[in-house]
Design goal:
2 domains, alpha/beta, Rossmann fold, 4-stranded parallel sheet, 5-stranded parallel sheet
């Protein structure tokens, strides 16, 4: 029943269709449906979150409701998978109650273990390796703002984290160039980079990882950054901030990009750290359009997973 979406690789063959469906679903917001019943009528979705969230929780909750279904949120204080209960047991139990699981976890291996045991679709709503839901929403936003994706350049500056990993795969699949600038010890996952390079040979995309943030920003259509310290890394905060200060996105960084370049951040943002206020609050910033598009991408992901 259905299809797990744990990685961007799981939508490799239908990423373009997924973005197109997101566009369609966005265009239908507020319009009266002529269908006899909404696509998720009588469907119950589990929102299983080991980590707290604003955008992911809100966008999935509203997405399920707009598609005619219902959702049940289980937060960090309730979940405790791997402590109170084995991931495989949780997957089997939830499969008896729900029609799909949206899982936000600390560990990718836990997501995989739960999905292997579950008999219903599992959607990865963030783990330590990938954040495919974010990447689909981001590609939707870039497509919307730039009139297409193929041949455009995304400069990702900062920590080579889960968002960066999913964007690398997404860009490589869709034919969009991506250059990542990260400190030597904080580059994106090497296996992900190699897979992105392999996919890029087919799509024609250019994938490159460098250490110079200004080189990455040169002639970019999109400049993207994320927090330097993710949830669960608080002990590394002071050390990471020292290492990453040269990667702060400033007006000087944006000046290296194309004149009509846009700035993106998946939020929450720490102004004065990974980005200056004058950039994220400036006219080139599209971070709130980006956040809104998570809702529409989430709807497309739900439908693709549950078909």
């Amino acid at each position: 029943m259905g299809k797990d979406i744990l990685s961007m690789l799981d939508v490799k063959d239908n990423l373009g269709a997924l973005i197109a469906d997101s566009i369609r679903l966005k265009s239908e917001v507020g319009k009266k449906s002529t269908k006899k019943s909404p696509p998720l009528a009588h469907k119950n979705i589990a929102l299983l979150f080991e980590k707290p969230s604003l955008r992911t929780k809100a966008s999935f909750s509203v997405a399920v409701e707009q598609l005619g279904g219902s959702s049940t949120y289980m937060g960090p204080e309730e979940v405790q998978i791997g402590k109170r209960e084995a991931p495989s047991d949780a997957g089997k139990v939830l499969s008896r109650y729900f029609d799909a699981i949206v899982y936000r976890a600390f560990s990718h291996s836990t997501v995989v273990e739960l999905a292997e045991a579950a008999s219903i679709p599992v959607i990865n709503a963030l783990d330590d390796l990938e954040h495919p839901c974010q990447a689909v929403g981001d590609l939707l936003t870039i497509n919307e703002k730039k009139g297409g994706l193929r041949g455009k350049k995304l400069a990702y500056i900062g920590d080579g984290n889960n968002v960066c990993n999913s964007l690398l795969l997404g860009c490589a699949i869709i034919g969009m160039d991506m250059m990542v600038a990260s400190p030597s010890n904080h580059k994106p996952n090497q296996d992900i980079v190699l897979k992105a390079e392999e996919l890029a040979k087919v799509s024609g995309a250019k994938i490159e990882v460098v250490t110079n943030p200004f080189k990455a920003a040169e002639d970019a259509d999109v400049v993207y950054t994320d927090v330097w310290v993710s949830m669960g890394q608080e002990a590394e905060k002071e050390a990471k901030e020292k290492v990453f200060m040269p990667y702060q996105v400033t007006p000087r960084t944006m000046a290296k990009a194309k004149a009509d370049a846009v700035f993106m951040h998946c939020l929450p943002a720490h102004r004065g750290l990974e980005v200056l206020s004058e950039v994220i609050d400036g006219e080139k910033s599209i971070v709130f359009d980006q956040a809104e598009n998570r809702l529409h991408a989430q709807k497309a992901i739900l439908l693709a997973s549950m078909q």
